[in-house]
Design goal:
It is a single chain. By secondary structure, the protein is of the alpha/beta class. Helix content is about 35%, strand content about 15%. The chain contains twelve helices and eleven strands. Strand 1 (about 10-15), helix 1 (about 20-35) and strand 2 (about 40-45) form a beta-alpha-beta unit. Helix 8 packs parallel to helix 9. The longest helix is centred in the N-terminal third of the chain and has 17 residues, at about 20-35. The termini are far apart.
């Protein structure tokens, strides 16, 4: 393997099994492509869901979904340089024999994407610029999301997107919500999301709520849809790219810290982020913009519907969507 990254002709980047963590990787991968335009840059994600973040990326030659050290070592043999952008990934390739450059553990108070950019800039010997500080989903060019056509959105509709769940259900199934959701430090309750949806529509009848989530969360979607009229139910029907695409037409996005939250951060949509135990600087929207509002509390249960409504109304008024 080459000791000098900038002189390498083939680079392999190990990412993670988390959608959010892979979104954080996209600015660093874009920086790699920016300064190594002719190199082969391939990426390893550790499951199919998190790999969606990189599908269609112009910065990547080949995207792999691999689990296990043996397969990873076999693949890595043909590369000049191997870079690990998330230390948690090492647990998924435990026992790997591949020599690689590994990013240090994250520190609080600095966005994860910023820490990855700083690390990559050090490997490349370049400076981080404001142009580098942005997430990249797919090609970065929004496309029409045809699934929305089925819901007959009208010109006067004000679309507000809410993400109900998290990737945990993909791993542990629907039983997670009965046994573990209340104990999860990052999730807001389904009952409060329903109350928020009702309050938004009461405030303005032109508001239509879009809900997203994994297919294992369809029973949550049915509960929300039953209680909030006019809901556009996209649970189990979207990819990372789909969500990025329809965010261009959304007037507001509301969610707790999750992968979809960070996909929304790649768009210009106004965001209300709900944070309990998670550091909102470490894992908040990146880069921070005027249309982002963070509600932080000791626990998620301490965040009230009225607090979220206050921020939602402010953003809808201050950043109206041009139809």
């Amino acid at each position: 393997m080459s000791n000098n990254l900038i002189e390498s002709r083939k680079v392999l980047v190990l990412t993670s099994s988390s959608t959010g963590n892979n979104v954080f990787c996209t600015p660093a991968i874009r920086m790699l492509r920016k300064h190594m335009p002719h190199a082969v840059i391939d990426v390893v994600a550790l499951n199919k869901l998190s790999a969606e973040v990189f599908e269609g990326s112009l910065d990547i030659n080949t995207l792999y979904v691999l689990e296990g050290a043996r397969k990873f070592d076999k693949l890595a043999k043909s590369y000049d340089k191997v870079i690990c952008l998330n230390t948690n990934a090492l647990k998924r390739v435990k026992g790997t024999q591949t020599k690689m450059d590994v990013i240090p553990n994250y520190v609080n108070g600095i966005a994860r994407a910023e820490q990855q950019l700083t690390y990559m800039s050090g490997l490349l010997g370049v400076k981080v610029t404001d142009e580098d500080r942005k997430y990249v989903i797919g090609s970065g060019v929004p496309e029409h999301f045809s699934e929305m056509d089925k819901h007959h959105v009208q010109p006067d509709d004000i679309l507000v997107s809410i993400h109900l769940g998290c990737g945990t259900t993909l791993l542990h199934g629907w039983k997670f919500f009965y046994k573990g959701r209340a104990d999860d430090e990052r999730l807001w309750s389904i009952e409060r999301y329903i109350a928020l949806g009702q309050a938004l529509i009461q405030e303005n009848p032109n508001i239509r709520i879009i809900i997203t989530g994994t297919r294992n969360e369809s029973f949550l979607a049915k509960k929300f849809e039953k209680n909030v009229p006019g809901t556009i139910n996209l649970v189990g029907k979207t990819s990372a790219k789909n969500i990025f695409d329809f965010m261009q037409d959304v007037s507001l996005f509301v969610s707790h810290d999750c992968g979809v939250f960070h996909i929304a951060s790649a768009a210009d949509v106004p965001i209300v982020g709900l944070y309990g135990a998670t550091d909102p600087v470490l894992a908040g929207p990146f880069p921070a913009r005027a249309q982002h509002r963070i509600i932080e509390a000791p626990t998620m249960a301490d965040i009230s519907v009225s607090q979220v409504m206050e921020s939602a109304k402010l953003l809808l008024k201050s950043f109206p969507k041009n139809k």
